[in-house]
Amino acid sequence: MKSFFNGETELGKVLIPQNRLQERVSELGQEISQAFDGKDLAIVAILKGSFVFAADLLRAMNIQCSIDFMGISSYAGQPGSGVVRITKDLDESIAGRSVLLVEDIIDTGLTANYLLNALRQRKPASVDICALLDKSARRLIDLPIPYRGFEIPDVFVVGYGMDYQQRYRNLPHIAVLRLNGAQESSPAATQPDQADNKNGS
Ligand code: IMP
Questions:
Q1: If you measure from the C-alpha of residue 162 to the centroid of ligand 1, how many angstroms do you get, rounded to a whole number?
Q2: In what order do the strands lie in the sheet with 157-158?
């Protein structure tokens, strides 16, 4: 039987192996625990791409917190515009609470910027970003990312919750995706439905 993980020509090299992910997520969990100790921490994880990261991050934390999920998708025809539609809203109020926005990857920064503004309108005590991956070479908006897992180059990645057309989320590591046998560089720049991944990712 053809292996899901090894037989696909689209999958490129492993960029971040499973053990490295676990180590870094554990470090982030400790950092966040120290920073938010004694605060009323509300984790807001963005679906779907951050669900694996958020689940591991939560278990690496040793302070009290709640977790809620927000689902988003880009408006049809406007991928990359940074204007997103909320497909699943938070269940609980974040007013007066310390919010940690957990994202899988910050690319241009438009999505996270939109979400930050949307969350701030709900009058939390604070909102900070925690992103597993930072593709800073493609940033269009300067964003503070106080909790960041890894800086990565301008490549399209999948695995550990992140997808390409809803596939590869279950890879235990992060791999580069090759499109149509192309090189392992910059597919994100030419990937038309990248923002639609939030539909998601
Ligand atoms: P931004 O608005 O350009 O920062 O887009 C961020 C979103 O685009 C992420 O939350 C992902 O859904 C998606 N995205 C950007 N780069 C990648 C990638 O390399 N793999 C998977 N999804 C990506």
A1: 9
A2: 11-16, 174-177, 157-158
